[in-house]
Design goal:
By secondary structure, the chain is of the alpha/beta class. The chain is about 25% helix and about 20% strand. The chain starts with a helix and ends in a 9-residue tail after the last strand. The relative contact order is 0.12. It binds beta-D-glucopyranose.
Length: about 725
């Protein structure tokens, strides 16, 4: 009798009734218990997933309930394992593969703008907002958490990342990931690792020694993983020291899973898998977007390799255990995404986007306190960059079709590539926002295509504001740091006609500014997202006091950077006799001689004076730092607002590694963000992260923290010390 009841239950399970996972034990224990109940076919089903072709043309076998998005892996209802619905989500829920134009989402500013806020709360709130929207749209795996360090100022995806410093990037990305996952869904951290340029990303071999790799790009990932606990890590397209990142045993298994004890799963980037056995044995757990690879490597070929013993069964079980660990640890298993699309609070989410945009805007120059716009300004002319209707968006898989629509779109390709190759503007008009903020002023707009006409419109105005843009996109690096489209000439002409000229930059990273000395005020607004117009107007008028700080160095010339151009551009430009691009692009190597001295550390080491240093940003008020106290790795001092306006400041603490012979390369070891009324003082305390000054001891396989006190400075940027001292850093951080 009992046996037959058991049989009935088992049959019911096999027929599809959900049996919940055991609710107790660690996520890995619960995952392992589930795996023990899975068939081989079910396990194999979990380790490879679909890509939604932007044309909407289904491949045979594609899931019928696919929401147009980056990917899907069908769940196993009888075990309560949810279908994994993946969407890009770095800057909002990306939706461009969906042909439905009414599929919109809240577009945040570029990640580099979020990094510029130096405010982990902004990153967390932004991640939480994206996660809430994604969940309401029924997505549960978010391809977010871009934390590749900016090694080159022209990098095509710099705008999707968090800058050039491991502590800043790791902290901000970790906060964003934690925000996403607070919705009980999974976030990735990506692209593991050293994916520093877009040119030739499918074929290049990035070379960097173990020590500098651990002390730079890997450190950024480590900090992000510790802070955000992402359910999944996405491996990159590139080769790292010879092996493709997604079949690189050293980085996936030796470092990520063994040294760091990372419990979640490694998913591939879309089209980044090149093998079955090598990838599986190296530590790849899931092949994403399988149609983009040459084969479904983790389908039938993996089944064959398992049957023949070329891949141990334990490896497949580990792959699935890791996927389920990520699903359980984030809460997704116990709190599945809704069965139907839920309403979204667009207004509340837009406020999150606007806060991020405001805090990320950096005031680069303000001679004669030309900004904020004086109350006496009666006639203002806005010029260029479609500032009458919107603000620029970056391109590629992270792009969001925003609430409000697309006032300007420049298509660059047709067919399948079309959705990823178009220059678009979000519907957020700086002109309308300024008119609303300054109802007493006459504010005109001219498009700037004719510099002479723009100059003549500007000549009689109280203030001219040129909006300048540089579009960056995934899969391409900028070929020059100069503004495109003869915008330098436009700015020169306007500044010559009216010395009261300001420039608002909408760029994905640094640009050269040959007109700098002739333009008294400059703000860097990055790609400011769907409330960018309002945020720019708030900063221009002083409703918001600018408090963003540069998360990357702006070089004075491309030649100051470690490489003068993206390596491989020459190969990309090869033409055959008929003038067509030669393909395929051959493999090539990129060396990183700057090692761990990325960004500002490179400029310090080479003695170059950049245009604007890392950490730099002006304010409409002024702050004094005093009373440095150093105890137990904690730095205390007092910040006072000595100006006439309320505002936020970002004092930064840099240390030099005392045991090195070269103590010039300061590293950001901590910072704080403080908001003060005029005259107000606040005692602040900054805890230092010893890893930033530690050396990786390859022989001992551990971090070594300097024994002698390390020189320290509290500064306004990487090159502007205010208080100095020395600190004995806390003991070595947990291994390794
Ligand atoms: C990008 C990833 C993205 C994936 C899925 C790839 O081209 O490199 O960042 O998550 O596509 O859209």
């Amino acid at each position: 009798m009992r046996a037959s009841r058991l049989l009935t239950l088992l049959l019911a399970g096999a027929a599809g009734a959900a049996i919940a996972a055991p609710q107790t034990g660690t996520p890995s224990d619960r995952a392992a218990a589930l795996v023990a109940r899975m068939t081989q076919a079910e396990k194999l089903q979990m380790v490879h997933g679909w890509w939604y072709p932007p044309t909407g043309i289904a491949s045979p076998g594609m899931p019928g309930d696919f929401i147009p998005s980056a990917g899907q892996i069908d769940g196993i209802p009888r075990l309560g394992i949810p279908t994994l619905r993946e969407t890009d989500a770095s800057l909002g829920v990306a939706n461009q593969v969906n042909e439905r134009k009414d599929d919109v989402a809240t577009a945040l500013p570029a990640a580099i703008a979020t990094a510029a806020s130096f405010d982990p709360d902004v990153a967390r709130a932004s991640g939480a907002m994206i996660g809430a929207e994604a969940r309401a749209k029924r997505f549960n795996v978010l391809l977010a958490g871009g934390v590749n360090l900016t090694r080159d100022p022209w990098g095509g995806r710099n705008f999707e990342y968090m800058g050039e410093d491991p502590l800043l990037a790791g902290t901000m990305a970790g906060a964003a990931i934690a925000g996403v996952q607070s919705n009980h869904i999974v976030s990735t951290v990506k692209h593991f690792v050293l994916n520093a340029q877009e040119t030739g990303r499918m074929v290049l071999n990035a070379r960097l020694g173990e020590v500098p790799l651990r002390e730079s790009d890997l450190l950024a990932f480590r900090i992000a993983i510790d802070a955000g606990k992402p359910g999944s890590v996405m491996c990159a397209y590139i080769r790292v020291n010879g092996d493709y990142a997604c079949e690189n045993r050293h980085i996936l298994t030796d470092i990520l899973k063994t040294d760091w004890h990372y419990p979640g799963w490694v998913m591939s980037d879309w089209g980044a898998v090149h093998s079955t056995e090598k990838a599986a044995l190296a530590g790849l757990d899931q092949q994403s977007g399988q149609q983009l690879d040459a084969r479904v490597f983790f389908g039938a070929p993996l089944a064959d390799a398992l049957a023949a013993g070329r891949v141990p069964q334990a490896r497949l079980d580990d792959m699935v255990t890791r996927i389920l660990t990520g699903v359980i640890a984030t809460g997704l298993m116990d709190d599945p995404t809704p069965a139907t699309v839920q309403p979204i609070d667009d207004a509340a989410h837009a406020a999150v986007a606007e806060r991020a945009a405001r805090e990320g805007i950096v005031l680069l120059r303000n001679e004669g306190a030309m900004l904020p716009i004086a109350a006496s300004a009666r006639h203002i002319v806005l010029i260029g960059a479609h500032a009458d209707v919107g603000v620029l968006s970056g391109g590629g898989s992270s792009q969001v079709r925003s609430v409000g629509g697309v006032p300007v779109e420049i298509p660059l390709a047709s067919g399948e590539a079309a959705s990823f190759a178009r220059i678009t503007w979000h519907d957020s008009s700086p002109l309308a926002a300024l008119r609303a903020a300054l109802p007493g002023a006459r504010i005109d707009y001219v498009d700037g295509r004719d510099p002479a006409a723009a100059a003549s419109a500007a000549a009689s105005a109280d203030l001219a504001i040129v909006f300048a843009w540089q579009w960056q996109t995934e899969s391409e690096d900028a070929e020059t740091l100069a503004l495109p489209d003869r915008q330098d000439a436009l700015i020169e002409a306007v500044a010559a006609a009216n010395p009261r000229t300001a420039v608002v930059l909408e760029t994905g990273g640094p640009v050269l500014m040959p007109w700098l000395q002739r333009v008294p005020a400059i703000i860097e607004a990055w790609y400011p997202g769907q409330r960018g117009g309002d945020a720019i107007a708030a900063v221009l008028t002083g409703t918001a006091n600018p408090s963003g700080r540069l998360p990357i160095t702006f070089p004075a010339a491309a030649a100051q950077a470690p490489r003068p151009v993206a390596i491989g551009l020459d190969l990309l430009h090869r033409r055959d006799a008929a003038g067509n691009a030669k393909s395929p692009l051959p493999g090539f190597t990129v060396d990183y001689p700057e090692g761990a001295n990325v960004g500002y550390r490179w400029y310090q080491k080479t003695g170059a004076t950049p245009l604007f240093p890392f950490g730099y940003g002006l304010s409409y008020t002024a702050f004094r730092y005093a009373g440095l106290k150093i105890a137990d790795g904690k730095i205390g001092f007092t910040v006072t607002n000595i100006g006439a306006r309320a505002g936020s400041d970002v004092p930064q603490v840099y240390v030099s590694a005392a045991d090195e012979t070269d103590v010039t390369t300061r590293r950001l070891a901590g910072w704080t963000r403080v908001t003060l009324a005029p005259g107000e003082s606040q005692a602040v305390s900054v805890t230092l992260d010893p890893r930033v000054a530690a050396r990786w001891d390859a022989d001992g396989h551990r971090w070594v923290v300097p024994r002698r006190p390390s020189p320290l400075m509290v500064g306004r940027s990487a090159t502007n010390p205010v208080l100095t001292g020395a600190v004995r850093l806390p003991a070595a951080p947990p291994l390794p």
